[in-house]
Structure formats: structure tokens, C-alpha cells
Amino acid sequence: MKRVLRGALIPALVFLLWEAGSRADLLPMDTLSRPSDIAVALAGGFVDGSILLATWQTVQAALSGFAIAAAAGILVGAILGLSPPIERTVGPSIEALRPIPAVALTPLTLLLFGFGLRMEAGVVAFACVWPILLVTVAAVRGIEPRLLEVAQILRLGFAARLRKIILPAALGRIVVGLRVALSISLIVAVTVEILMNPRGLGYGMIIASQSLKPDLMYAQLLWLGFLGWGLNAALTRAFGSWHGAFGPGVRP
Amino acid sequence: MSVPPLLSLAGVSVSFGSPADGHEVLSEISFDVPDGEFLCIVGPSGCGKTTLVRLLAGLLAPSGGQILFQGRPLAGTSRDRAIVFQDYSKALLPWRTVAGNIALSLEACGIAEPERSERIGALLAKMRLEPAAARFPSQLSGGMQQRVQIARSLAQQPKLLLMDEPFGALDAITRQDLQDEIARLVAENRTTVVFITHDLEEAIYLGDRVIVLAAEPGRIAEMIEVGIPRPRDQLETREDRRFLEHRHRLFGLLQGH
């Protein structure tokens, strides 16, 4: 609790100075709204439900894209990590696709899916799949060969080997890729909304900005920051307890 | 009409690299292991001990010669042949408890509850691991971790137990404890063992028979019957006239040069 208070000290100070500065007419009101006005705008957005709806739309797109990327990235990554010949065949194509900026696919997904959830989730999935895929390949390759020999001696089939040896042994490192991908998912979802998809918090911010309501824009921006922090904390918590399965003091 | 040996090697060789300039690791290895024998193989480093145990496990195929297991050519791994590795910390699953690690073998053998739990309980008792059942390998001493690996190997009820320098990384006192323990377990279960070591005294102390390998390329230098009755004793056996004779005779062979 003491740590939380200590961490909140600087933001509280910034808001206080900001409020005081704008009340003393030291800050330009048309770009830097007052924190009190921002709080009112945020509360209003919650009361009329607009922020909640936009949040749901953004999070839904980010998480759908992330989930697709996680499933595809881990499965393909495990196969590539286990089979060097397949990796040598598929690897160059991956290296050719990977540098394409995900956001540049927005026009293509618009053609494919039209406006809405599917185009946004598609772009998010494309952006998120690479870190998960690459980390999974490296993690599976880095598995202690002794463990694979144990699996061989016990004659575990492919599915059992994947479930009982490979994934648990690699998961500690795969989680790193998942965390990177999760933060990317929110960034890309909001970017696609700001670019052209008329839904979610990104679109809400563009509209607020264009209709000269900086307080509402700031309200959504702050809320977005809080959302990203919450997502990351949830993931850390979920896998923090999983790390515990290794016993105290052991990190894979 | 004699009973065929459990394991039989005839002219087995292993080379790495191309046939022309390949490096020969094992050359013309031939020996039989009858059912129930405790065979120790001792040799200096670089004599292909580990390569030999990988051959017997089926993790490696020979370049020449033939290996028969139960009268049939040995091809690939089998749950009838268990292996205890020297590096116990790498061979155990760090995310599973002691009981969970033993369960892995039983899962692989398709043994379902409640029999699985019963057999885990029996093995924990046999290996004196009961107090550690719910702990993780990283929380155990080296000796305890090696006990877990031995328990996991016994769980698959192998016909042949392969041990690759299993006590090489342990301190002297723990090593003696585990030597007596494995001798007792093997006598109880009548398991056939091929035990690899670089410690001549350990080989004579544990084995019914000792094979000494020479290096470059790995080949059989000598084979002796130990002929000291069991149960053996860490003090008395090591002072036994026959023990000392074997030790004197084989010591020179391990000096290399």
C-alpha cells in the first residue's frame, strides 16, 4: 500500500500543477484541458455508456486478434522449432512477410472484411503473430535435449510430447512473446481505429479532437493508458501463478 | 538348450563423420548380458562409455555389427529399457513434483488411476522419497534428485536398467548410500543392469562382472567375473582379498598410456 502511494505521488503532483496552472491562465485551455474538466468528461462518458461501448469495441478487437495470433504463433512456432527442415522451407517466407508494417494491411483488410471488428482483429493478429512465433521457435529449440530423450525413451507420441514436455518446458519463454504481443495488440487496434475504422476508443478520440473537445480526448487517452496497464497486470498475474508451478525461486 | 542372453552385442562399432575419414568411437564390441546380471562397464574418459549406453537405449544406431535384445535386433527406444542419466537436474521435469515426475513414466505406460497412485506410493516408499513427494526437483539435494530419476526409471518396470555414470556428480557419502540402495533394489526386483562408471572401485563393488574399455577407439580391454558374494558391505567388501586383486589387476588398464 505504501508503495502504491509512493508511486502515485508524481502523477498526483502533475495533475495538481496542471489544474493550478490552467486556473491561473498559464496554460492554453484549447489544447490542455483542465484535469477537473477531463474528470467530468470521463465521468460523463461512463454515465452515458459511450466510453464503455468504445472500450468494449477496442478490447474485443485487440483480444480477438491477440488470441488468433497466440494460437497460430504457438502451433506454427512449435512445429518450426521441432523440425529444422520445415523451418528452412518456411523461414524465408516468414522473413519476407514479417517486415510489412501491420498497419499497412489496413486497406487490404478493409477490402476483405469491410469496416468493423473483423478487419481490425485481422490487422492486430498480423502484428501480434510475429513476436509469438519467433519466441516460440527459439523456446522450443532451447528445450533441454535430455528432456526430449526422456520422452523418446518413454515412447511418448507427438501429442503427449507436445503437452507433457515441449509446451511446459517452453512456456516460460513463450510468455515473454505473449506479453510483447499483448501490448502490440492494443496499440494496433487503436491505430486502425484512428486511421479509418469507425469504432472504439481510437475513433472516439479522433472525433473528440476534431469536434474541439480536448477534455473528452484526454479522458479517453487516460482511460486507454489505464486499460493497457490493466491488461498487462492481468497477464502477469495469470502467468505469475503459473510460474509458481516450478517451485519457489525457479524461473524457466 | 541354453537360455538366450537378454542382451547380446556382436562386433558392434560406431563411427561419426564420413566413412572415409570418420572418427571411430567404438570398435568391435562383443559381449552378452544374461538375465539378472549386474554388469559394470568402466573406462577412461573418451572411451565411448556414453556412446555405448546410448546404443543400448536405442537412442543411437550402430555403424556396424548387431545388437540383439531378447533375441531380436534392437531398433529404437523401448519402455523395456530404462535409462538413468548422470545429469539428474536436466533429466527431471522442473515443473512437476517428485510424484509427478514418477507419474510421467506411468502415464507413458498407460497406467490409469487408482493403480497409478498406488504404484507411485510404493516407489516413493522404496526410494525413501515419501517426505519429498510434493516437492519440486529444484528443492531437493542432488542425491534426492537422482533417487527420483531412479524411481521414475523403475516405474516403467524395465527388463534392462541402463545407468550412465549415475553417481558421478554426487559426493562420496551420498554415492555410497546410493550404491547400496541400487544393489538392494536390483536384488529385490531381479532387474538386469548395465552400469557405466569411470570409478573402478564402484564397478567392482557393484558388479557381478566388470568390463574395462580402452580408448581411441573404444574397445574391450578386459572382462572379469567379480565373484564376491552378496550382500556386499562398503567396508568389508572393499577390504576383501578378491576386491583388492581385481583392483590391482584392472588399475593399470585404466591409466591410458
Q: Which structural category fits the helices and strands of chain A?
A: mainly alpha
Biggest chain-to-chain interface with counts? A-B, 22 and 26 residues
| Biggest beta-sheet profile of chain B | 6 strands, mixed
Spans of chain B of at least 5 consecutive residues whose pLDDT stays below 50 are: none
Going across the biggest sheet of chain B, name each strand in turn.
Answer: 6-7-8-3-9-10
Radius of gyration of chain B in whole Å, from Cα? Answer: 18 Å
β-strand percent of chain B reads 15-25%
CATH H level, superfamily name of chain A? MetI-like
CATH topology title of chain A: MetI-like fold
Residues in helix, % of chain B: 25-40%
Shape of chain A: elongated
Described by its quaternary structure, the protein is heterodimer
Number of helices of chain B: 9
Please count the beta strands of chain A (DSSP E, at least 2 residues each).
Answer: 0
**Biggest β-sheet description of chain A:** none
For the record, the CATH class of chain A is Mainly Alpha
Domain count of chain A: the total is 1
> What is the typical, i.e. mean, pLDDT of chain B?
91
List low-confidence stretches of chain A: 243-252
